[in-house]
Amino acid sequence: MSFFKKLKEKITNQTTEVTDKFKQGLEKTRDSFVGRMNELVYRYRKVDEDFFEELEELLISADVGVTTVMELIDELKDEVRLRNIKDTKEIQPVISEKLAELLEKEGDDVSLNLQESGMTVILVVGVNGVGKTTSIGKLAHHLKQQGKSVMMAAGDTFRAGAIEQLEVWGERVGVDVIKQQAGSDPAAVMYDALQAAKARKIDVLLCDTAGRLQNKVNLMNELEKVKRIIEREVPGAPHEVLLVLDATTGQNAMSQAKTFGQSTDVSGIVLTKLDGTAKGGIVLAIRHELDIPVKFIGLGEKVDDLQPFDAEQFVYGLFKDVLEAEQEDSQ
Questions:
Q1: Residue 111 contacts by C-beta under 8 Å, 6 or more apart in sequence?
Q2: Taking the domain 14-108+314-329, which CATH number applies?
Q3: Sorted alphabetically, which SMART domains does this protein's record hold (predicted)?
Q4: Is 248 known to sit in a ligand binding site?
C-alpha cells in the first residue's frame, strides 16, 4: 500500500472537523509549495541532479531551512537509488513520507504535560506581536473543552493594553484573570495568581509574560525571576514553557526560538498565523533543527482554530490535492 493510501486511511478514522481545519489552514502553503512541486514534476520527466537542485530551492523558499533541506535531499537521493525511481511522479509520495518522518520524531510527546493530581502551571513566552495573549485565550478554551478548570495570570504588565486584552479573552471563554495595575512587577502578579489558583483548586494556571523590555537581557532576567517564583510556590512547576512564534515571520521565528530556548527551557512551540503564510515549511525547520516539539498551531481566527499539532494531519493538509488526484486515478 502506498504512503498516501496509508495516510488517507489513518486520517479517515479521525474527526472530519479537525481534518477540515488543517486543510483550510494550510491552503496558502499548499497552493504555493505543492503547486510549485507539481510544476516541477511536470517539467522534469526523470529524476536527475537538475530536478534535485530545483527541489532544493523550492523547499528553501518555503522556509524549510537550509540544514533541514540538505539532509532531506540526501535522504531522498538514497531512497531514489534504493527504490530505483526514475519517473518524477513516483517521487511525490516519497517526499511526503520523508516530511512526515521529520515531523514525527521518535519519543516525541506533543501533548501537554498536564498533572494527574494537583495544579498544572503553564508559562507562555514570546515577543510582542506574535499572538501570545490570543493563544493563551484560545488555549484556555481548549482546556475548558477538556473539562479542566482554568485561570489566567496577566503577567505582561509592560505592554499597553495587554492586561485588558487578556481580560476580554477571560470573559469570552469564561475564565478568571488575576491581574495588577499596568507597570506592576510581573513576579508579584504570578505570586497572587498562584495563591488564588491554589485556594480555588484550579486544574491549570496559564501565565502570560512580558514580550519586550528595554533589551533582551532584561527580558530574559524578568522571565527567570517569574520562573523562580513559580518553582518556589509549586514544586516541579512550570510543567510547560510554551514559546509562541508567528509563522509569517519565517526564519526570524527560528532566531527567536533559539534565544528563548537558551534562557527559558522551552518545552513546546505554539506556532500562530499558519493560515496567513505560504511558508508553512517553518514547522519542519523548527522541529528538525531546534529539537523542540510543535504542540499547537494556529489555523485561523476563531476560538477553536488553535489546534493540537498532528504530523499526519499536517502532511495530509499539505498534500490534499495530490492525495485526491491519486484516489481518482485508482478508481
A1: 295, 308
A2: 1.20.120.140
A3: AAA (SM00382), SRP54 (SM00962), SRP54_N (SM00963)
A4: no
Q: Is 126 annotated as a binding residue?
A: yes
Place of cell 523550492: 58
Residue 262 has pLDDT above 90, yes or no: no
Quick check: helix, strand or coil at residue 304? coil
Counting every residue, how long is the chain?
331
Q: CATH: 3.50.30.10, 2.40.240.10, 2.40.50.100, 3.40.50.300. Which one for 120-310?
A: 3.40.50.300
Q: Is 116 helix (H, G, I), strand (E, B) or coil?
A: coil
Determine contact, residues 298/269, Cβ cutoff 8 Å: no
189 is in an annotated binding site: no
Kindly state the average pLDDT of the residues 122-139. Answer: 94
Residue 236 annotated as binding?
no
In the chain, where does the domain assigned CATH 3.40.50.300 lie? 120-310
Q: Is 81 one of the annotated binding-site residues?
A: no
C-alpha grid cell for residue 196? 488564588
The span from the CA of 52 to the CA of 66, in Å, is 14
Which residues make Cβ contacts (< 8 Å) with residue 224, sequence separation at least 6?
263, 264
Query: 129 labelled as ligand-binding?
Result: yes
Residue 127 counted as an annotated binding residue: yes
Instruction: Give 171-187 pLDDT, tens digit per residue.
Output: 999 999 999 999 999 99
User: What is the C-alpha separation between 329 and 104, in angstroms, rounded?
Assistant: 29
What digits encode the pLDDT tens for the residues 175-219? 999 999 999 999 999 999 999 999 999 999 999 998 875 456 788
Strands 204-207, 176-178: pairing kind: unpaired
Residue 131 annotated as part of some ligand binding site = yes
